Amino acid sequence: MPKVSVNGVNLYYEIHGSGEPIVLFMGLGGNIAIWDIELINALAERFKVIIFDNRGTGRSDMPDEEYSIELFADDSAALLDALGIESAYILGASMGGMTAQEFALKYPRKCRKLILCCTLAGGENSVPPTGEALAILMSVKDLSPEEGTRAMRPAAFTKRFIETNGDWLEEKLKREIAYPTPPHAFERHLQAAMTFDAYDRLPRISCPTLVMTGVEDILIPARNSEILAQRIPGAKLILFDNSAHGFMSERRDGVLAAIFQFIEEG
């Protein structure tokens, strides 16, 4: 299994495809199996796609110590250094979008272009999850990984998508729970996300930025993406209708088209 040692931990990573590098930052407590396989394969037809398990998840080390979004960004930068990659396109989803913001701010020379998906700036200027989403989050606390993943679906996807993609979701579930995130690591991820705040620093992001989300997202409401696009100089905003937090799967073709156009334009 490919791993590199960075900042005192071993990170598991995978590389798909060839070409210019694009690095994907995963969200809260998630391992690389959460990425949409079809999306990864499509990206790999044009780019070298690097995906990895954050510390605390998947096949990476899981120390029970304080985590922070800045630490995740430092891990990501060290991973690129270990792979001999001077700079890359950076895509972050959910908490991974927070890490991507921090990465772009702290390592501007390593970030060619920035893609922020279903994420937020953090702090008091952010819009919190809806009451429905909070209730779902509370309900999964003591469930098994399999039960919790199923219970979280209404917070991640629209009802329409769940009803018409049952087999796809079940196959995805099998991959995700093969390497479950232990409770201590999930709590460390949650603490890191809750203490993140880039709102005042966003105008310092200097690379071209694309912000995307699903209009029906109840975990990280779409207003958060609007705030990001307003605060980051020159940022482009795309809101996808008929989709929620999992819009990268629900509206995969549109998302891919937006990514390709954004990266390939001057």
Automatic annotation (TrEMBL):
Domain AB hydrolase-1: 21-247
Record carries keyword Magnesium: no
Presence of keyword Membrane: no
Keywords: Hydrolase
GO molecular function: hydrolase activity
PANTHER family: AB HYDROLASE-1 DOMAIN-CONTAINING PROTEIN, HYDROLASE, ALPHA/BETA FOLD FAMILY PROTEIN
Name by which UniProt lists this protein: Alpha/beta hydrolase
Originating species: Candidatus Abyssobacteria bacterium SURF_17
